[in-house]
Amino acid sequence: MDSVLGLQLGSVAALNAAFAWLVGSWLARRWLSASGTPRANAEALLRSGDIAAAALGVLGTGAMLWASAAVMGGVSLKEAKDVVWQMLTMTSIGRAGYISFFALNLVLVIRALRSTAPWREWTVLAALGLFAFVRASMGHAGENGYWTLPFTAEVIHLTAMGAWTGLVAVSAWKAVHAHAGLPDLNRMAGYLGSMSATAIAAVAAVFVTGLFNAWTRVGTIENLFDNSLYTTALLMKVGLVGLALILGGYNKFIGLALARDSVRGLESVKFALKIESIVLLAVLFAAAVLTSQQPPAAI
User: Fold this and answer.
1) Number of domains in the chain
2) Are the C-beta atoms of residues 172 and 273 closer than 8 Å to each other?
């Protein structure tokens, strides 16, 4: 793997992960409050992770634009610095890049503020929606314009995948805790129930839009097994999503019941969520590979 492709894949994977965390954190705040956690406590719990994710997204955007300039100019990373400005001002990818840069910086500033005012959450939601829109325009779905079915499907797919991955990751590493005592178990069980229902809706959207994207970009069954990097990454992504569904199914049908009864049961749910989050991060990397390659139907 050359340095340009490495930076391209790494930056897109970082962007995917940052967006997922921020979407998941936004949703987690809703369900923590609904389950009885004071808003100030939820903010204190999630704030540091949000700042780190937003900062990663800002850095990832800069790295992605640098790699994109090298790809478009057919030059090395060192030489690409001379064409970055031209790309930013004269190409759709460049314009989308600095809009996404603005959106993530806005989220970073808002999450750095020590406030629980409601307007902050709606501003963050608007910024994340703007990011999803321009991020979709930078991939294969944006090649035929914004007001098309493939583009709409891509925006929904990115958002749903982010919501699923983000909710699992935020729940596994930040939101779910297992302090002794029945009130905490009740609150955590309520939160996990809401999280699980949201994740199921996100999975359904991922499934439908993923099938549509595969159909439009792969084209035929023969293309699916052509041993290209694109189809290899797609099959790996499908396999990883299947594994994540198994882990999520365990928590839905077995783990949640255990979590309502004991701290040990809640810890088992948290462990399964951690494994699922790692699997889903691998899915995001596979998605970054798909973004960097031409699909069979376009060749």
Assistant:
1) 1
2) yes
Q: Which amino acid, one-letter code, is at 277?
A: S
Total Cβ atoms within 10 A of residue 101: 20
Phi–psi pair at 120, nearest 5 degrees: -60, -40
Instruction: Report yes or no: 298 and 141 within 8 Å, Cβ to Cβ.
Output: no
At 13, list the tokens.
């994977």
Under DSSP, is residue 37 helix (H, G, I), strand (E, B) or coil?
coil
CA distance 218 to 225: 10
**Residue numbers in the chain where pLDDT is lower than 70:** 1, 140-143, 178-183, 297-299
Amino acid at residue number 191: Y
CB-based contacts of 68, cutoff 8 Å, min separation 6? 8, 87, 93, 94, 97
Domain of residue 242: give its range: 3-298
Helix-helix angle 118-137:3-34, to 10 degrees: 150
pLDDT per residue as tens digits for the range 102-112: 999 999 999 99
Q: What is the DSSP code string of 65-106?
A: HHHHHHHHHT--HHHHTTTHHHHHHHSHHHHHHHHHHHHHHH
pTM score: 0.94
- 197 neighbors 163 (Cβ within 8 angstroms): no
150-170 residue pLDDT tens:
899 999 999 999 999 999 999
Residue type, 95: R
Task: Report the candidate in 43, 166, 170, 20 with the shortest Cα–Cα distance to residue 112.
Answer: 43
